[in-house]
Amino acid sequence: MNDAGAARVAYKTPHRGFPLTATPRLLAALVACLAPAPLVAQGIHPGLNPANRDTTCAPCQDFYRYANGGWLAGTTLPPEYASYGSFTELVERNNETLHRIVDRLAAVAPATPQTTDGKLGAFYASCMDSSAVEQAGTGPLQEELRRIGGVASSGDVVRTVARLHGSGREALFNLGGAPDFKNSVMTIASTSQGGLGLPDRDYYLRSDSTATALRGAYLHYLSATLQLLGDRPAAADSTAARVVALETALARASLTRVERRDPNANYHKLSLAAADSLTPHVAWAAFLRDAGAPKTDAINVGQPRFFRAVDSLLVAVPLADWRDYLRWHLVRQSAQWLSSPFVNESFRFQSALTGVKEQQPRWKRCLQTANFLMGDAIGQAYVQETFTPDARRRALDMVENLIAALDDRLHTLEWMSDATRAQALGKLHAFGKKIGYPDKWRDYSKLSVDRGPFIGNVLRAQAFATHRNLERIGKPVERDEWRMTAPTVNASYNPSLNDITFPAGILQPPFFDATADDAVNYGGMGAVIGHEMTHGFDDQGRQFDAAGNLRDWWTPEDAERFKTRAGLVAKQFDSYTVVDSVTHVNGRLTLGEDIADLGGLKVAYAAFQRALARGARPHDIDGLSPEQRFFLAWAQIWRSKSTDQYLRNQVTVDPHAPARWRVMGPLSNLPEFARAFHCQEGNAMVRPDSLRAQIW
Ligand SMILES: [Zn+2]
How close is the Cα of 241 to the center of ligand 1, in Å? Predict the structure, then answer.
């Protein structure tokens, strides 16, 4: 689920370069240049590095360590990263390419650019102009701060929230245009719970030491930022406590992340009149108008209980607290683009949250912002330089092979009745495929960009993106539009569109390499593709039909059989721990991703076998059979080092299990893996039949 209430699942949670206002469109970034020399030049066969292994560890006991132990022993976590591995290495290679592009464009960008390239160049140049950023201070926010200071009624609070939403800043809850879950061809107004500064509602409510420490760091961050705005220390401390009290009330009314995995729990489409009676202090027609949305007659109020609580708080909470809450969220969401004292406080909090030790260099932060706010401008230039039509064709071939393999699986799946099977096959063959880059790039002609100060460009770009989203309300969904930018090292499935997306950023080594053997490409990119396809059939995705509508197409018996099998996966992941012996993965939170990994590997392996059958059997490489290389490719993709804080936060907020368990979990369920490595019953990598999860 994204914040506007539309279900959407990604392969991996994007790394967060900037604190708190991170969005799924942010690019990850990395420390120094870590782009490896070409592997062939190092005498290593493309795709896999045998030296990454720890061969003293038996593959049937701990395959993650067997595959990555050498790399883990030889790698230090770079101080600019809370988590680091093959994804970040690839992001870093992409960064080098993007850096060259924006540097070149920035050098020639005019003062008032008209072309997309000119605008991207000026945008990046203004971000890099740190002295102008320091001089601008909070100047561009002063007008909004003054208006917030004048809030004198609960009606003013609501109007301010609407205005902030209209300019791309969020407060109190989320708002946007999104596909109607039950009429997926139309965009409807959609609002959902939100308004928190900490990354999860549980952090306000839990009493363990991690949550307590985090609340302390957050209070400090809040107070320090208010002091930068001119508040006296004692007053800032007490204001911070009152803002956190308000947010705690919002947190208490919020659904948990696990509760939010149920699409029906997030779908409450109401007429505006019905929404008004749910929240008597918010008149929704006026609210939408004030946010700049077109006239409409209905809205999805994602979580009614939360909005009833908001309505009570509008009356119960003193206006002074509301003014401080709004002021804080305005500045919090701009902090990363303000002068260095604001940036530093923001980073200090990020550091407490994730354990990251150093900020990334400015150019990387500027690249991320450009990718976030002008993603199709940077994507267009990136694709021209890195992605050929031939690469796109090869990726599409692979997708078709995976679809054929899943088609096969669906035809032979023993636990599913023919009635459900027919629907599942229909859904599979209706998949939309987005590969490499969009056919139509976003038009930036109405976005005004200049050479600075940077915050002005950011505010205009945020308003531009928000306007674009809101104006869709009441109109047909634009199915061809991309929700990820082309350089993104990630992939996704969107249940409302029933489509899969593989940006150019991930269609390269170690995921996909035209010079590597099939084993490596199917164990890497093939499994990624299978993963996204399986999302269409995971515990969330299976609730949407071929047309992307939330509709139950399962026979009750098949649904029960699915749930029993999924329950085994949830229980399996619940038992996995991180950092210590009590902090564990939340198997109900990661269920969709775990099912997708399991199904993705199963289908990719079947497709790989079909590819092998088409020609002469390849020779072993480095003493490894093709089947062994397939599983090694998957495991090496997940090599990763993380701070303890990162892992603790990950199991709270991330629907993806930590990297180690994305290797150990699915492989220990797969007989194909056990066969490839000659594992025996009783080995740690072989789950007993009674516990073995098999779904797709
Ligand atoms: Zn996923």
Answer: 37
